[in-house]
């Protein structure tokens, strides 16, 4: 039974190609154009290529199953389109509609062609329906996956952006921490701090936690690890920017910070750091 | 057997570990160093580990113990030139070398020793 329905489909597809294209485009274009994301020409080109790949796959495979290797080119085409749309900011529904909107024009053709044979009509319709559904679902899946990879990449970028190590003075580094400290971030923070210590030969590092919203035992442990690692490299750490609430939490949690110099503001920490390095800042009026 | 050289400079001893540390070498170093400290009446020991880019918990403990032994023999010990990756590993292993002074490089380590002994 497989051969006839595949052949019928190919015939319909190739005979009514242009009409199908136009109708399909009409259905789909309204959505895409409204959001100003694409042009009609681009859209038409996309549909045409999809129809080409689709017909090719039909000719090679008699079985309408999108999971078979013969359908690989179709899946690849859809995957690329879907990923592209995810980047452009389409919604999942709009992306899936690309495939689903082929249904109506195709069914109209099928009905006119196979009008005299209801059994064949329902058979073909059912198979086409299954095929297009699985292709549509595949599009959505790829779309979702591309979105996830975009999110993952953004997270990574955010991680790098949020851990700058700056040199305040000869031999003094500052590490302003913003946001929650988790294990992954601590690792990045630690690495960039130690690397900077090697590069600049700094003897003092000020870790400013003004931007850290909460300090729990885990965050405190991460801070202490960073301090310990810096000390192993021969640099002293000062922790600054400890807000009153955080001071309370630290004591309530029983975190031992006695081995670390702590200051309430970055300015205080900087003053201490200057003293330790033997430098001082004088205002002009004082020198005069 | 392979040995790590110990150099004397004034009343300081300098140990530069330039090869991959393995367990037997570390134990031999401990023997040699303690003996030299007593023999040379050294007041300071500088251990340069800048060429070491892999440590395990045993080597970490050996460094820590060697430094502690030197301190018991009344010699200030400074560990210098630790690589960032080594520092991170030691911290993750829970070895923070708490009794040991550290410095970024040999120059700063020497300065630290001079300053301490004054």
TrEMBL record, chain A:
<dbReference type="InterPro" id="IPR051932">
    <property type="entry name" value="Bact_StressResp_Reg"/>
</dbReference>
<feature type="domain" description="STAS">
    <location>
        <begin position="162"/>
        <end position="273"/>
    </location>
</feature>
<dbReference type="InterPro" id="IPR025751">
    <property type="entry name" value="RsbRD_N_dom"/>
</dbReference>
<dbReference type="InterPro" id="IPR036513">
    <property type="entry name" value="STAS_dom_sf"/>
</dbReference>
<keyword id="KW-0597">Phosphoprotein</keyword>
<dbReference type="Pfam" id="PF14361">
    <property type="entry name" value="RsbRD_N"/>
</dbReference>
<protein>
    <submittedName>
        <fullName>RsbT co-antagonist protein RsbR</fullName>
    </submittedName>
</protein>
<dbReference type="Pfam" id="PF01740">
    <property type="entry name" value="STAS"/>
</dbReference>
<dbReference type="InterPro" id="IPR002645">
    <property type="entry name" value="STAS_dom"/>
</dbReference>
From TrEMBL, chain B:
<dbReference type="InterPro" id="IPR051932">
    <property type="entry name" value="Bact_StressResp_Reg"/>
</dbReference>
<dbReference type="Pfam" id="PF01740">
    <property type="entry name" value="STAS"/>
</dbReference>
<protein>
    <submittedName>
        <fullName>RsbT antagonist protein RsbS</fullName>
    </submittedName>
</protein>
<dbReference type="InterPro" id="IPR036513">
    <property type="entry name" value="STAS_dom_sf"/>
</dbReference>
<feature type="domain" description="STAS">
    <location>
        <begin position="1"/>
        <end position="113"/>
    </location>
</feature>
<dbReference type="InterPro" id="IPR002645">
    <property type="entry name" value="STAS_dom"/>
</dbReference>
